[in-house]
Amino acid sequence: MSTFPDNLLDSLSIRREVPLAPFTTWKVGGPAEYYAEAPDRDTLVTLVRTAEEHAVDVTILGWGSNVLIADRGIRGLVIRNRSAQIEPLSECEFTPRREDFIRLQQLDTAKYYSFSDLDYPEEPGPGMLVWLDSGVSLGLAINKLISDGLTGLQWFSGIPGTIGGAVYNNIHGGSHFISEYVRAVEVFKDGTLYQLSADELDFGYDYSRFHSSGEVIVRVQMCLARGNREKARAASVAWAQKKKLQPHNSAGCCYANLSEEERERLGLESIGWGYIIDQILKLKGTQRGGAVISEHHAAFIENTGSATAGDIFSLLKLVSDTANEKLGIRPQLEVFLLGFTPEERSQLIS
Length: 350
Ligand SMILES: Cc1cc2nc3c(=O)[nH]c(=O)nc-3n(C[C@H](O)[C@H](O)[C@H](O)COP(=O)(O)OP(=O)(O)OC[C@H]3O[C@@H](n4cnc5c(N)ncnc54)[C@H](O)[C@@H]3O)c2cc1C
Hints:
By secondary structure, the protein is α+β, with helices and mostly antiparallel strands. It has three domains: 76 residues, Uridine Diphospho-n-acetylenolpyruvylglucosamine Reductase, domain 2; 159 residues, Uridine Diphospho-n-acetylenolpyruvylglucosamine Reductase, domain 3, CATH 3.30.465.10; 87 residues, UDP-N-acetylenolpyruvoylglucosamine reductase, C-terminal domain (Uridine Diphospho-n-acetylenolpyruvylglucosamine Reductase, domain 1, Alpha-Beta Complex). Helix content is 27%, strand content 24%. A five-stranded antiparallel sheet has the order 6-7-12-10-11. Helix 3 runs antiparallel to helix 6. The mean pLDDT is 94. Flavin-adenine dinucleotide binds next to strand 3, helix 4, strand 8 and strand 12. It is found in: Cytoplasm. This is UDP-N-acetylenolpyruvoylglucosamine reductase. Cell wall formation. InterPro entries: FAD-bd_PCMH, FAD-bd_PCMH-like_sf, FAD-bd_PCMH_sub1, FAD-bd_PCMH_sub2, MurB, MurB_C, MurB_C_sf, Oxid_FAD_bind_N.
C-alpha cells in the first residue's frame, strides 16, 4: 500500500482518517485514509502531483452531492476541492447549442418539476469566455455570472454541486446540459497540466470522458451569452424554488432515464425511473435501516437521519434486482460509488 512520508503530511496539511460523511449530501460513508482541502487551483495541482509521485490514489470530492461513499471509507488521498476563482477571459460568439441527448423528456413529470414554462432560447450574439475553477459552487457561479450580465447557467439553479462535478457527469437542468456552454477544460494527469477542447470531452447523457480518463478537472472554460439578465434571474429563482421541493438528504435522482427505444421495447409509459420504481416495481417507501425510497420521487433515496452507506446500497441493490426480475434490465446508476470493491460495484453496475 502506497503512503505519504510523514514530513509531507504536515507541509501539505494532509490529515489522516478524516470522516467524509459531513462532506456529502447523503451524510453517510467512512473516513478518508488521507484528506486535504484545496482552497485554490495551485494547491489542487500540488496535492495531485505529490500523490502521483508517491503512487497514492487520488479521489476528488466536490460538493459530495452525487456520490455514495462506502462505510469503510476511501483509501488514498481524498481532496475536497474548494478552488473558487471565476475569471473573464475574452469575447466569444455565443451560439445557442442544444445537445441532442434526448433522454430528458419525462411523461410522469410531477407539476413542480415541469420546466417548459420556464425555458426560453438564448439569442445568438456576442458573449464572454470565462474560466471557472472546478471547485466553484454552481449556485455561486450562477448568481455572480448573472449579476455580471452573463447568462446561460440559470437552468442549473438549485443543483447542489461544483463546476468540476457538473462537468464530470454533464449535468442536466430542465432540458439543458452543461456541455452546451463548455468550450475547454484544463486538466491534470501524470504530472502534466493540459487543455482539452470541448470536442475531446466525449459528452453524452450523464457522461463525459472523465468517467474513465483519471484526469483531474482543474478549471473549465465556458462561453456565456450577454443575454437578458432579468429574464435569466427570474428563471433561475423560479427553477431553484421548484428544485427546493426535491429531497436534499439524498444524492438527487439515482438513475439515468431509459432511452426511448428501451421504453418502447419494454412497453413502459415513461423513461423515468421515478415512475418505474413507483408504478412497476412498487418499491416507493421501502425502507432499509435509516434509508428510504423517497415518497416524493421514487428515484431518490433519502437518509432519514440514521442511514449508513450499507442501507443505501441495499436499497440500490433491491431496485436493481427487482428491475432485473420484472423487466430484465438493471438501471444505470447516476451516482458514483466511492470506496466500494469491484465485487460490490458489480452488484449494481452491469
Ligand atoms: C437535491 C439534488 C438535486 C439534484 N439535481 C440534479 C439535476 O437536476 N441534474 C443533475 O444533473 N444532477 C443533479 N443532482 C446531482 C448532483 O448535484 C450533480 O451531479 C452535481 O453536479 C455533482 O457535483 P459535485 O461537486 O457534488 O460532485 P461530487 O458528488 O463531489 O462528485 C461526483 C463525481 O465527480 C468526480 N469529480 C468531482 N470533481 C472533480 C474534479 N474536479 N475532477 C475530477 N473528478 C471530479 C468525483 O470524484 C465523483 O466521482 C442533484 C443532487 C441533489 C442532492
